[in-house]
Amino acid sequence: MEIYLPIAEMSVHWLIILGMGGAVGFLSGMFGVGGGFLLTPLLIFYGIPSEVAVATTASHITASSMAGALAHWRRRSIDFTMAGVLLGGGLLGTAFGVWLFGILRAAGQSEIVVSVGYVILLGTIGGLMLNESLRTLHATRTGQPLPSATQKHHNWIHGLPLKMRFRQSRLYISVLPPAILGLFIGVLSGLLGVGGGFVLVPVMIYLLRVPTSVVVGTSLVQILCVAAATTVLQAVNNYNVDIMLAAVLIAGGVIGAQFGVSMAARLRGEQLRLLLAILVLMVGVRLLFGLVVTPDDPYSVAIAGQ
Amino acid sequence: MKRATILAIVLPLLVTVAKADDLVSGLSQDQIQITSNYTGSDLVVFGAIEAPDNDASPAKRDVVVVVRGPDATMAVRRKSRIAGIWINNREVTLSGMPAYYFVASSQPLAKIAAAPVLQRYQIGLENVAPQSSSTHKISTTEQFRSAVVRERQRGHLFSEAPAGVEFLSYSLFRVHVPVPADAPRGQYTAEVYLFRDGQVISAQSTPLFVDQIGLERNLFNYAHNQPLFYGLAAVLIAVLMGWISSLLFRQT
Could you tell me the pTM of the whole model? Predict the structure, then answer.
């Protein structure tokens, strides 16, 4: 059955959308990522206008991070102080990102910024993950242990002012790095519709030295709030959140995530990361291809004030 | 509304001039309501040519039906390759372009009348013109105008049916007008032209309304009129669905 998406202003088959949500949910369950960075490009490939894809993905992330955050809250593995500091920067960044998005859209440049942004993001993350997982695989095969990256060394972070105690993380560090990190993630969310977990988690582990046990729960709280704020701000500033699209995507996503989780239990960690890295790079290459290849028709039409 | 003025001036003249052949036409419906399960409907424009008994052969007469949709302001952008990637770098705003245009004729338009005549009445896809353009260069406006025609054709919102006028008898004719599901809401006009020897001898214009109704339309209106509550509702739905899923799958 075809359903009409009121904001994207197009008819789509609901099963395809449900399947897309399911596929992204499956991957996010399997790899423990939000999946926003895959969902937005997927929607764009399907023909959803990029501005609607970016904003609607934010509401999909709201739902998937809600489920995740609740699970971590029950396990008490959330550092709320840390989450609060991240959020302070995050909300500011979101507001800036959504505002910038509106300006770019009016200038007819939002599509290109989204595509270029994703190519850079996916290329960098995919490349880093590929490198890391190949090294791990190589190390396990040759039996050589890798130097641990989480050793308690003092780094430049500890020299910064405005120090604060984060009890649950057992850290006494400056509020500046988490606040700036949150700000950056907020901008990414407003501009590209990603949750930002794939940036947040490694930075928190390797740079801020937050214990792994609280990293995921804490980052999920930040992602939940930033994604919710992005949804509201996009709706208010750019009118581009499609509730119909979001509802079907979320329904598919929550089902797919369950299968992803059980699949993850059967695969080894480094194999999973290698698979994800390849997937991320493939999506990036596909987007890059769209930017470089000569379009069928270089003209596009936008109807003003409909 | 330059065209409307022309029609207003020309129509009374035609009525008096065209006593020999007169035109009567109507629509199957004067309002189309597009609902969520709408899969595109056919509007039927029908009519009759009332000619005196001793009139010439029907081959000399031609009927053209034009249905055009609400006038819109369109931002048309052109991509160029900059540093290897395709970026929008030229924008022309065309105002007063119809968002929907359909023309059907009893034979190919070029055989019915000369180009200047078709141009005057904006008959045919190459003659659909904006009322104004943000550029003064005529050749540039033409490039961007034809880009709109191509884009609308791809979306089935602009189309031509060179044999779309069906004659049921010597004087009775009928045209099926395709109205796709994403036809923009607003006022349309159905114009029927009777040509004889390459000149318009009679014309009629009938208004038509297209409206989008149902849940989808209400959501669209709500998103634009109450964006804050719409956004909060979107978050609420997402949070609830996330919460419900975590309850459902708690064990796994």
Answer: 0.80
